[in-house]
Specification:
Layout lengths: L6 E6 L15 E6 L2 E2 L1 E5 L2 E3 L8 E5 L9 E4 L6 E10 L4 E2 L5 E7 L1 E2 L1 E5 L2 E3 L8 E5 L9 E4 L6 E10 L4 E2 L5 E7 L1 E2 L1 E5 L2 E3 L8 E5 L9 E4 L6 E10 L4 E2 L5 E7 L2
Parallel strand pairs: 3-9, 5-10, 11-17, 13-18, 19-25, 21-26
Antiparallel strand pairs: 1-2, 4-6, 7-8, 8-10, 12-14, 15-16, 16-18, 20-22, 23-24, 24-26
């Protein structure tokens, strides 16, 4: 009545070695072969979000030579977080799970790739900043970026991606970009380009247009002359740093003889 596998069986006394003796009426006995307790080893307890259910892996040891045994693990999750997985079943009935059958595991956020656009802006009187979009997303997922560092005046600044709308994703280590708000080019209108010699210095007058509503900007003009002749005046400077002179910033003017 000898058996190998785990289970409950009946053994039977069938023969005595001494002929002077006889077996009793009750010659059987029930006996049990209990499953051998395996040892569990957990791996893959630090996972990264991939848009599908995941769980750690459990492998068994303490098996008899030549035996095979796999483990059924429950507790798979999809989203970022910390969870508990549980070994619930063995494929080989000759083995039993140990008392400790759980493992804590983590699904970490997936790191996005940032692509920056609109890093060269032009002053428009309003706050502006670059735009960031994300890639390296799981198909079907959506994720928007919060960007800080908006500025109004002309200059060079740094914008920063500070937050993602989808908790299953994380920002990369470098989440900043340098951007520029260029001055707005004004339009020059020239007046007083013809004078009569009077012994005093004269130059034309320039006024600007193409300004944002509410802004003020005056022009510095160089090239004043006193003697009769034909000359060139140049607009050299604007009073408002949010504006720039056009490429052509000169005008011809004349002081006629008296």
């Amino acid at each position: 009545g000898a058996k190998k596998d785990a289970g409950t069986y009946t053994a039977k006394a069938t023969k005595l070695s001494n002929a002077n003796y006889a077996l009793p009426k009750a010659v059987t006995s029930k006996y049990t072969i209990k499953p051998l307790t395996v040892k569990l080893t957990w791996t893959n307890t630090a996972l990264t979000y991939k848009g599908a259910n995941q769980s750690p892996k459990a492998a068994v040891s303490n098996l008899a030579d030549g035996d095979k045994c796999t483990v059924t693990v429950t507790g798979a999750k999809k989203d970022v977080g910390t969870y508990t997985a549980k070994a619930t079943k063995l494929s080989n009935g000759n083995y039993a799970l140990p008392k400790a059958v759980t493992a804590e595991y983590t699904i970490k956020p997936r790191t996005v790739k940032l692509t920056w656009t609109n890093t060269a802006l032009t002053y428009n009187g309003k706050t502006q900043k670059p735009t960031a979009t994300v890639s390296n997303l799981v198909k079907g997922d959506k994720c928007a970026v919060t960007v800080t560092g908006a500025k109004k005046d002309a200059g060079t600044y740094t914008a920063k991606a500070t937050k993602l709308s989808n908790g299953n994703y994380a920002l990369p280590a470098t989440a900043t970009v340098e951007y520029t708000i260029k001055p707005r080019t004004v339009k020059l209108t020239w007046a007083n380009t013809s004078f009569t010699y009077d012994g005093k210095s004269h130059k034309p007058t320039a006024t600007v247009s193409n300004l944002v509503k509410g802004d003020a900007c005056t022009v510095t003009v160089s090239g004043a002359k006193k003697k009769a002749g034909s000359y060139t005046a140049t607009a050299t400077k604007l009073s408002n740093a949010n504006y720039a002179l056009p490429k052509k910033a000169t005008v011809k003017f004349t002081i006629v003889k008296k």
